[in-house]
Amino acid sequence: MERTIAGKTIAVNEEGYMTDFSQWDEKVGEALAAEANLTLTPRHWEVLKYLQTEHKNQVALSIRRVGKSGVVDIKEFYALFPNAPLKTATKVAGIPKPASCI
To answer: What is the pLDDT of residue 102?
Structure first.
């Protein structure tokens, strides 16, 4: 499937997660965040970059792993990305939904 995000045609799956990370850029991230009713701050970007790095290193992501990362604790993660923080954050970061998310 494809959809237009930030003026670009982006490949997505049936849940709206990007399937080709090379299509992601900060404008796409900002547009995806806006769809989730988020305004990205420097702290959001720090967490998103961490998630992208972990994805590139093929590390399985989970709320627990993010909370123990030293980048953000679980309470702040929920404050930054309310309503399903790992699902929302990975979608905005342009990476697949983690297997740990239902």
So the answer is: 67
